[in-house]
Amino acid sequence: MSVENIDHPHLLGPGLATFAVIAASVGFGLVPYFARTLTAEGMAPHAIAFFRYAFAATVLLPFVWRARAQWAALVWGLVAGIGMGVGWVGYVRAVEIVPVSTAGILYMTYPVFTLLIAWLVFGDPPGRRAILAALMIVAAAALATSPDAITPDQVPALILSLAAPLGFGFGINVLVHKLAVLKPVVRIACISLGSVLGLLPLMTTTPVAALLPVTVSGWWLVAGIAFGSALVPQLLYTVAAPVIGTARTAIAGSFELPTMFLVGWFAFAEPIETAQWAACAIVILAIALTPRKSIRSVAANIAVEAEGRS
């Protein structure tokens, strides 16, 4: 299926669409592996974030140009992308020094930020189910970051990592409230471009040695994080989510979190305690309870919003 056909997702059957969402979630969940391995090679966290978004921004740039007449919506998308790109740097930094499972649980607090921003900025008060799901996620985060799970020297990195779900929550709100006039691919494109623009100042002030991989395997990892954890998963979500609906997309998409756990376990020999598994279960249950406005991911919001307009 070509990118041009992305506005006609029902060419997929429900079984294949569910598999596509799961595959996309695995791609998103592999981010900690790429990020920690590349930082170990000496790449700066913001350089990793830059390359993750740069590929999608470059490939999809023609779609932004075609939609230039809708410049107001494009500006909102660029601003959302800036927030998401800069915020993601904090997540990469956290993954570098804290257990992947702990960083993953904190990242999954983005529905809480989504609801707060929707209420305070866009005048969209949350419903009871959304509030219940948000409280469950806060409880899961508290469980995963208990004094027994982290050390005092890791606290600053964990606080900084909250910039990622904050930026993500803002991006979701912009998608829902401001980008409905854009086609799905254009939304992905302008947000990716905004992330690249937001990270450029940091790139220009960083020594070249910290911007690029130093090994051939490092370049393969850069390709993997750009292609396998950004562009392809976003497109899969965009195509598949309208086919299977919000509930199944949310549940299938939650496979990202246990994928993060398994990455930490297999790739970095990080033990997963009972508290982390319990937090994982709470987050997945909260995702299943979350109503339509708090879809599982940015790409899923794109797809379901497009379905609603049709």
With helices defined by DSSP (H or I, 4 residues minimum), what is the helix count?
14
State which percent range the strand residues make up: under 5%
Distance between the termini: 20 Å
Mean pLDDT: 82
Unreliably modeled segments: 1-9, 292-310
Shape: globular
SSE pattern, N- to C-terminal: HHHHHHHHHHHHHH
Task: Please bin the fraction of helical residues.
Answer: over 70%
Which structural category fits the helices and strands?
Answer: mainly alpha
Rg over CA atoms, rounded to whole Å, is 18 Å
The count of strands amounts to: 0
Instruction: Summarize the main sheet.
Output: none
Describe the structure.
By secondary structure, the protein is an all-alpha fold. 75% of the residues lie in helices and 0% in strands. It has 14 helices and no strands. It has helices spanning 14-29, 31-40, 45-66, 71-97, 100-107, 110-120, 128-144, 155-161, 163-178, 184-204, 216-253, 256-268, 274-289, 298-309. α11 (216-253) packs across α14. The radius of gyration is 18 Å and the shape is globular. Mean pLDDT is 82; it is low at 1-9 and 292-310.
Concise description?
By secondary structure, the chain is an all-alpha fold. 75% of the residues lie in helices and 0% in strands.
